[in-house]
Design goal:
The protein is mainly alpha-helical. The chain contains five helices and two strands; from the N terminus they run ββααααα. It is elongated and about 50 Å long.
Amino acid sequence: MSSWSRGLDSPASFKSTNYKYVNMNRTISIRPTDELMKKLEKLGWIEQKERSVLLRRILMTGLDEELKRRALALYRERKVSLAKAAELADISVREMMDLIKERGLALHITSEELREDFEAALR
């Protein structure tokens, strides 16, 4: 059984990389510090959830935030457009605009980008 990342309907919906679906049979190994284990055990006790469930959720949350952070950095450096930053962060253009505003960044968008985004929204 496969599981899709939040916001993705299929691997084809993210065209800029070789994104593949997540196979739940895959294993990622880490060597946690004592501090990490204490925090994980505490959270497990609070939520009464298995460690693997917690780790998947925490990892997904961290990845979502890191993708947003990196997309914002690329946008701030003018290396990507607003629409591309939103795509990289796996969020809507509106959500990316809200993030830009929250972080106090300038919204730099050309009339051409605005037209392209508008046309894409009509499709």
